[in-house]
Each structure stands twice: as structure tokens, then as C-alpha cells.
């Protein structure tokens, strides 16, 4: 194998191991053994476990950021639901590593790892704004979108801790939560009200947003 | 001053400095100078900046956890609103230190600091459950309460970044968000529906929960 090919293979093997268990439990020996090479050869490509962890995290970050990309077609609720399904696919595949990373701590909380987490959040934020067709968001819309992204993270982390709620229910719930957070903000602010009406005007009768309204009306009665 | 008195004074001085600027910008020299003692004397009481930071953070954590305590009297919406006011008072007083801590990183992201953050989240969770009069919460209620606490954190962090929205609006918004997240969950699950009806049955016509419903009806029309 060439140098770059070997590096890419090692990153893939490491990402697999760092995803399945907390990264501080994964040793270089284990990575070497899983890659079928010697420990000194691992160090030939990466100076230490941290640099290999950061490379694996960079690949995972690019993967996750890509899952927020969605064609600008069809109603907003269905687009968000497809994004949430891909987000939970990622969380499902990388559970223990995702939990360890998001909970921080010495093994995973470096400046470089925090910058990668922020880059994924920013990519998700830019994607959601593009679907809302807003280029210069008012402060309240920025708050709704960014705090919803953080809600998706915390919902996923709580789900991973025991998986006591079916993930498909939480994917729909997060789409509903987006509409609910936007509606709460719109209830206080006319500009957000106008944005919300624009967002929801193409929603079909059987889409997730109308589904929420129907369920809430039935709950209230 | 006695040993304990001097330690407590140093913790107070350090907390003040760690709150006003990012903790990695605060030096032991500065803490010594603000406390009116010599640098070696600071080291006599605390082996290094990290141990002083952790002691200051412990005091701040106990303070913050205490702000979630609220008498079990009156409607739920008003209780939550008083808690949110005290939460934003805390965030306002400790802005830069709170941001640096919650964003993690090498200066603040140790195992001990993460354990303190978790202890505050747990205290807030237990307090909210006690107001809901639930001792054995179903998984969906746990998710709503814990994810709402995380939403309060992210809302405060976004607010601190420029303070572009009046904090009083966000205090009310977070109370509304609680009702909205509970309603979204209740729309999918009968047990949550029963819990939500019980939560809201004593809400007065001019309380924050009914205020939200009135505003949403006006928005929809």
C-alpha cells in the first residue's frame, strides 16, 4: 500500500474502534492488530493515539456534516425528517464514540476536537437556513435553528443511554420540535411569525407539521 | 485570617475573575493581586490554578443548582419562570466563564469539571421532576425534562454571544418551550398526554402557558 492509502485504511480501522467503545478504552495495540500491522508501523503514520483520534474524528465530522445536505425539493417537514433519519443512522453507527465525544473529558476534549464539533454544527446551521431560503437570519431565527441543532444532539445522547424510546419516534419528534420552537418564537415576534408562515405554506395535509397540529388539537379536546 | 477563611476568600476572588474572562486568560499573579496576597501564598492554599479553578467552579455549581429550588406553591408556569429568571441572573453574572466552561476545551474540560456540570444538570432534573410530582418518570418524560435543561443551556450560550435578544423574552420563551416540548411528546404518547393534562390543570388564564396558547391561536388565524 502507498503512504496515503495506508493512512486512510488506518483511519477507517481506528474510526470503527473509536465508534464502538469510549476512545480512552481503545489502545494503539488494538488498532495495529485490527489493521493487521505492527505497533511501530502505526507510529510511522501517526505520531500518537491523539493524532489518529483527531484524523478519525475529522472523517466522521465530514460524514455527519454531509448528512445534513438535502435537495431543495418538496415540503420542509419531509426534508427535515430525511435529515433526522440520516442523523440517527450516524448516531446509531457511532454510539459509544459519539457519547464520549459529546460528553467531553480529557481523552476527547481538545481544542481540535471542539473545533470539529463546531464545524459540524455550523454546517448543519447553514444547511437548515438554506432550506428556509433565508440568507440574513434575524437573531431570533438564528436562536431557533442553533438551539434546535443542540436539541437534536441532546435527544440523541439521551436516546443512546439505554435506547428506551424507538428512534423512529424521536426522528419525527425532532421535526415536530423544530416547528414547536419556531412557533413559540413566532408567538412573541411578528417577524418570526411571517417567517413561520412562509416555512409552512407548502406543507401537505399528511406531512409531519400538519400531523403535529392534528395531534395537538386532539390532545386539547 | 484562618486557613479555611483564607481559602474561602481566595475562591471568591478567583470565581469573580474566572467569571469575567475566559479562565485560561486569568493568571495566578492576577488572583494573588486581587486577593491582596503574594503569589507563593496562593500556592500555599492551592497547589495550582486548576485546583483553584475547580474549587471556584464547585462554589458556582452549588450556587446554580440552588437556583433551581423553588417552593412547591402556585402554578407550574410561574414557578418555571422564576427559576428561569434566577438561571439568567447567574448566566448574566458569570457570562464569559460560563461560555468557556460549557464550550469545553483544555483549560476547562477536565473530568472533575464535567462531573460538576453533570451534578448541576442532575440537580435541575430532580427539582423539575419534584414540581411535576413524578417520582418514577417514564422514559419520554425524562427525555423532555433533560432535553429542556440542555435547551436552556444552549439558549443562554447563544444569548451571551452578542446579547441580541432581551433576556426577559428568553426567560418566558424557555417556559413556553417546556410546554411545547411536552406537548410534542404528548401528541405521540397517551401516557405523556395524561401527564401534560395534570401539569397544566392549575394554570391560570394569565399564566405563561395560557399566554402561549392565546398567542398561537392568534398566530394561526
UniProtKB/TrEMBL annotation, chains A, B:
Pfam families with a match to the protein in the record: TetR_C_46, TetR_N
DNA-binding region location: 27-46
Keywords: DNA-binding, Transcription, Transcription regulation
Record has GTP-binding as a keyword: no
Signal peptide: none
MF terms (GO), sorted A to Z: DNA-binding transcription factor activity; transcription cis-regulatory region binding
InterPro entries documented for this protein: DesT_TetR_C, DNA-bd_HTH_TetR-type_CS, Homeodomain-like_sf, HTH-type_TetR-like_transc_reg, HTH_TetR
Keyword Lyase: no
Residues annotated as domain HTH tetR-type: 4-64
Protein name: TetR family transcriptional regulator
Species of provenance: Streptomyces zinciresistens K42
Lineage: Bacteria, Bacillati, Actinomycetota, Actinomycetes, Kitasatosporales
Amino acid at each position: 500500500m502507498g503512504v496515503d492509502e495506508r493512512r486512510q485504511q488506518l483511519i477507517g480501522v481506528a474510526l470503527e474502534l473509536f465508534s464502538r467503545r469510549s476512545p480512552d478504552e481503545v489502545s494503539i495495540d488494538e488498532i495495529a492488530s485490527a489493521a493487521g500491522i505492527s505497533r511501530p508501523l502505526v507510529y510511522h503514520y501517526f505520531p500518537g493515539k491523539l493524532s489518529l483520534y483527531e484524523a478519525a474524528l475529522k472523517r466522521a465530522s465530514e460524514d455527519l456534516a454531509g448528512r445534513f445536505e438535502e435537495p431543495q425539493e418538496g415540503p420542509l417537514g419531509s426534508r427535515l425528517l430525511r435529515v433526522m433519519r440520516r442523523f440517527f443512522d450516524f448516531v446509531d453507527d457511532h454510539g459509544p464514540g459519539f457519547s464520549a465525544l459529546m460528553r467531553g473529558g480529557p481523552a476527547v476534549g481538545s481544542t481540535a476536537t471542539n473545533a470539529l464539533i463546531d464545524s459540524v454544527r455550523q454546517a448543519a446551521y447553514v444547511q437548515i437556513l438554506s432550506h428556509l431560503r433565508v440568507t440574513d437570519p434575524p437573531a431570533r431565527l438564528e436562536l431557533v435553528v442553533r438551539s434546535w441543532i443542540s436539541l437534536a444532539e441532546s435527544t440523541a445522547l439521551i436516546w443512546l443511554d439505554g435506547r428506551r424510546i424507538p428512534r423512529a419516534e424521536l426522528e419525527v419528534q425532532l421535526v415536530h420540535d423544530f416547528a414547536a420552537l419556531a412557533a413559540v418564537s413566532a408567538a412573541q415576534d411578528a417577524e418570526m411569525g411571517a417567517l413561520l408562515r412562509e416555512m409552512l405554506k407548502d406543507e401537505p395535509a399528511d406531512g409531519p407539521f400538519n400531523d403535529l397540529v392534528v395531534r395537538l388539537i386532539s390532545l386539547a379536546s
